[in-house]
Design brief:
single chain, alpha+beta, Alpha-Beta Plaits, 4 strands, globular
Length: about 140
């Protein structure tokens, strides 16, 4: 029974987990935008202060990026793909920019200030990926 519930949970998450619930900037995300994803891997000894990250660090980044930042989203890891497994990432932060030139300019200009703030909320070395948004609702 536990396995069936786990499979149902995963199926529901895949079907409904990516819907726009209006609680974030998802409505501003458009096809063709550039997304910077900042992954914070989970692991033994890793610490992460979600309150600081969501209430100080990410708003600071938004202020630094100004109008060049089109949307910002934060994910908090809750679990892995299988029932009762640990999330592979403690958190993932997303920045959305209209184009690569804006992304590179703003990230380059403000990366030092953003990196300097990382020790205030985590001991994790973040992993970054820059992507193009292929689909958006």
């Amino acid at each position: 029974m536990k396995t069936k519930l786990g499979v149902l949970f995963i199926a529901a998450a895949l079907l409904f987990g990516f819907r726009n619930d209006g609680s974030s900037d998802h409505s501003k995300i458009k096809k063709g935008m550039v997304k910077v994803a900042i992954f914070y891997p989970n692991g033994e000894g890793n610490t992460f202060d979600m309150d600081y990250y969501s209430n100080k660090h990410m708003p600071m980044a938004a202020d630094l990026f100004g109008d060049g930042l089109k949307a910002m989203v934060i994910d908090k890891g809750l679990g892995g793909g299988a029932p009762d497994t640990t999330a592979p990432y403690v958190a993932i932060g997303y920045f959305y920019f209209a184009d690569m030139a804006t992304c590179q300019s703003l990230m380059g200009t403000h990366s030092e200030a953003l990196r300097a703030d990382v020790p205030n909320y985590t001991n994790i070395r973040p992993v970054l990926q820059i992507s193009e948004v292929v689909t958006a609702e």
